[in-house]
Design brief:
Blueprint lengths: L2 H26 L9 H4 L20 H7 L12
Length: 80
């Protein structure tokens, strides 16, 4: 079998495998998504948050926290 033939057969096999999986899931029936109204649950209480642990070689200090406010945050580049 030539290289071109193998390159043509691979996408066809992947499409057929995907189709078989989708058909199998459709026959089983996908799990139903249940919508829950937050008002029905009522207020949720959070437990106490764990203490902040800094690494042994890099302890947190008030100077580091203060300097962090001056460091510019990198902007994300949106490619459209």
């Amino acid at each position: 079998m030539g290289k071109k033939t193998r390159l043509m057969i691979l996408p066809i096999c992947l499409l057929l495998a995907g189709w078989v999986v989708i058909r199998a899931l459709a026959q089983e029936g996908a799990p139903r998504i249940i919508q829950i109204n937050v008002n029905q649950l009522g207020p949720q209480r959070l437990g106490p948050l764990p203490a902040v642990v800094s690494p042994p070689g890099n302890p947190t200090s008030s100077l580091k926290i203060h300097l962090h406010t001056f460091i510019p945050k990198p902007r994300r580049i949106d490619r459209k």
